[in-house]
Structures
1.
Amino acid sequence: MTKILVVEDNKEITMLLTTILVKEGFSVDSVNGGYSLLTYLRDSKEPDGVILDLFLPERSGIELMSSLISKWTKTKIFIFSGQREHSESYLFKNPSIRGFFWKADGAHNLIAAIKKEFKLKNRVSSILCGCATFSSPLEGEGIRNLPTQRGREPKNVYLRAP
């Protein structure tokens, strides 16, 4: 199972990201500050991906970036920050950094990028349409005709692709 480490000091954001990622099929660990991340770096196995807030207590994500990249060379890093001022500078410095996502835009683009990076299908788990329940992958289509149960005619279901 693909493991994601969430490095975020805001408990609500950590809980939101963890809930979404687990529902999407990821294994999730989290730490809430710079020292916690250093301990995790020392004691834990390399995760597949890290969601990194740049402004953390004790030590900032900016300060910790080089330690993270040098210790975990295969880990993909997704920066999730409330400040846009560093967005351009970090994207091109290291190939481990897969993107910068602004918290004010929500988590949708971040989650979509993580799923794309790890090649997970975008799923709709349990769409209720009339009396029918569906599970269907989204392949970037805006509308799909999905079959209904009990012999009813197909209905157009509008799905927003990431």
Note: The CA atoms of residues 130 and 148 lie 8 Å apart.
2.
Amino acid sequence: MVKILKVLSLPLLLYFLFAIDGQSQDVLDLDSLGGKSSVEYYGYPTPIRTPERLFFIQRNISKNVVVYDANLTDDGRLDVKNPAKVYWKRYNNYQGGKVRELKWIERNMAYKLKIYDTDTKKSTASIISYKATKFDIIQRDDGQIEAVVTINGRKARMHYIFMHMVEDSFFHEVNYLEVGGKDLETGEVVFEQFLPKK
């Protein structure tokens, strides 16, 4: 019985993490986007940029997004040990961006940040469920806070991570990931699509 439960627990876990108000999509060839970013291609609602906004995660299976905002101390400094507030903005079913807290399993198994290193004004982190892409959360001298990541070999201010997912009979599998933002030097919009590492 224990072995059966262990086998069943992974699909069940992934289902609860990713099959939220979603619908399945066919496998998408990256070339079929016609040079557009996935966010442009799908045209789902995106959260408005605010001074504290770091980035958001969007998925093809749902209009709801996971938002990452800078977490500040009482004196306005970046809390480098816990640099982000993470929550849902819900757009499915005409909810208009209603805020909802993450469930425990969503936070701890999928969306919270893993912190690797800290400085007085910087945290190096990744999403706990995808550690291959690391980024820096930095507070500039003017107080501005941003998430900086490498996109196509260029340092960029990260705006989003997009997960394209495919549903089979038990759970959702990530088909590809996309990271998008703006080049720090030129201000050009940049994005990169890649296959998830096994």
Note: The first strand starts at residue 53 and ends at 59.
3.
Amino acid sequence: MLPDAHLRALRELSRLLGPCGGLVWALTGSAAFALRGMDLTPRDIDLVADRSGACRVGRLLKDACLRPVSPSWSRYVRSHFGQFEVAGVKVDVMGDPSYLGFSDGWTAPAPLPPLIETYESGGLRLPVLSLAREEIVYRLMRRDARAEQIGAFLRTRGG
């Protein structure tokens, strides 16, 4: 279930980012899963974009900035990462994420447009990363339990 605070933040993000021509972004992670009916409660909101899109989101959310968008890396992920607070909810933005593959180094950032679906409900219209892509990403992040949960949810939906 998506908490009311997250719904408020998503409405604000939609208002701020939706009308920006050429900005390619999508909701990803636990908030996207809960929005589509998976049984979990997110702590934050995650957005994915290309590098220039993440920087543009950073400029649009500059008054809510906790950490400016800049190159970032962890054991399995590298991206252009920033953190913001919108309507009291932490929002993480990743631009051009790349993942450590299982045998052949880092993956190239995936082109987002073919991986984005549209979620609509209650007057809210948001771009969301496809669950099939999410399952792959969670495997690449070595978060197999979450990948299994996504896969099971996809199978119950016939996808």
Note: The beta strands are 25-28, 45-49, 65-73, 77-86, 89-99, 116-121, 124-129.
4.
Amino acid sequence: MQLGLGPRLGAICLILASACGGEDQADTDINTDEPAQQQVEDPSNPTGQDPKDQESDLGQAEQTGDTGPKGYLERIETPSGVVIDIIERGAGAAIQDGLVAEIHYRGFTIENGKRSKRPFESSLKRGKPYLLHYGKSPVISGWNIGLKGMLEGSKLRLHIPAKHAYGAKGLPPLVLGNRDLQFLIDVISVTLP
């Protein structure tokens, strides 16, 4: 007796579903100190990025780990090479000279066009936003270029070339020399000092 295609196809789907896991187990807690686990190649996850890191704590936009044009409302390419992806547009005051921006951020290195799995620096991990006195705080030039004019309430992804980050010297041991960086930034508030 031959079974029709329907029961065989159903059995195959059931086997595949149980092998792949039937539930979404993505954990958005990015602030763990657990060592990275070896990834098994998964066609539904072409970047091989840990699902925990695919969604930013800084917004609901997809964070795939590559430096391509994904998950943003608008891309601004500056003459300096800094690229600003506006993930969520705020409606408050704009960052400008003399104002203080309270921001949360996560910084990642870029190697071979891919973002590192874990941030080298994170205000979220410290549990305290960074107070940026725009034009006065000692930050990399890529931040001054990328944050100027951004609105309170915005969620951004900054792509910063090495020359506007830590340059040839890097920031050992966290950032090797000549590394481009990517920052995920949440502009919480913009106020007078």
Note: The longest strand covers residues 100-111.
